[in-house]
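Whiteboard transcription, Tuesday session. T.W. wrote the structure tokens on the left side:
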């Protein structure tokens, strides 16, 4: 480490974030570059590789729990879900900033005492999300705009936790986003995806998509992706950038010569 980097590390400290990943095809996506631009060290806990892992929050400044194909009611089949609920409870007790995405949002809502169960219908592909008045006043979510097409892939949903702010809704799913306190967010939708991830999901889940939306759904989603992905990624950068700002993590102009943490 250079003297300059050492001084920055001493003055500001290296930010470290713990990321819970359930399957290799649901990574941080666009969030990865935003975190690295802020010189934040990322450590993945990959339960697909190590289902017996017992992570803790010591030494970490925030927690992100990503999506996955399992459901909250499958804790006997996937015992790591119990581990994650304990981890989320610890983060909430400490006041550690938390971001939950899709399954992560459902686990977060449940850790806050809310029910999680089947949505009225599966929400697969591009669907419009509308901000509530609270969402339009939220520093991060307001960057989405009053309404916007956003990518989704879920069959379950969460009830709004007591004391949480309801930030967004859609026609098929009334609870799309919430904030608890100032630094805890749950997002049901996938603002972190890019075109590559969408293509991968469409290939992996082709049978589920066809059964839910019909044989022509994949081609429709490809066309919608071509039309909407550029604007979606701009919104992603703005929303997540403001969310990280709320966490106290600003873009650092001076480079820190450091490793990128553990890979997924």
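and on the right, the sequence the group agreed on:
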């Amino acid at each position: 480490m250079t003297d300059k980097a050492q001084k920055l590390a001493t003055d500001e400290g290296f930010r470290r974030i713990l990321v819970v990943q359930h399957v290799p095809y649901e990574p941080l996506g666009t969030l990865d570059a935003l975190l690295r631009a802020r010189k934040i060290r990322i450590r993945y806990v990959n339960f697909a590789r190590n289902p017996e892992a017992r992570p803790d929050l010591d030494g970490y400044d925030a927690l992100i729990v990503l999506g996955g194909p399992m459901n909250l009611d499958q804790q006997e089949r996937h015992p790591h879900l119990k581990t994650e609920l304990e981890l989320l409870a610890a983060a909430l007790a400490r006041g550690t900033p938390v971001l939950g995405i899709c399954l992560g949002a459902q686990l977060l809502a449940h850790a806050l005492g809310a029910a999680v169960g089947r949505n009225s219908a599966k929400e697969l592909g591009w669907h419009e999300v509308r901000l509530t008045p609270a969402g339009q006043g939220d520093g991060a979510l307001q960057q989405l705009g009053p309404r916007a097409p956003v990518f989704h892939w879920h069959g379950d949903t969460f009830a709004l936790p007591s004391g949480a702010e309801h930030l967004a809704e859609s026609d098929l799913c009334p609870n799309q986003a919430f904030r608890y306190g100032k630094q805890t967010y749950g997002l049901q939708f996938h603002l972190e995806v890019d075109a590559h991830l969408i293509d991968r999901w469409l290939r992996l889940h082709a049978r589920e998509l066809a059964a839910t939306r019909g044989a022509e759904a994949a081609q429709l989603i490809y066309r919608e992706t071509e039309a909407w992905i550029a604007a979606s990624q701009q919104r992603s950068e703005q929303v997540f950038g403001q969310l990280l700002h709320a966490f106290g993590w600003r873009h650092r102009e001076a480079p820190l010569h450091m490793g990128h943490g553990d890979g997924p």
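Someone added at the bottom: The domain at 3-193+236-246 is CATH 3.40.50.880 (Rossmann fold).
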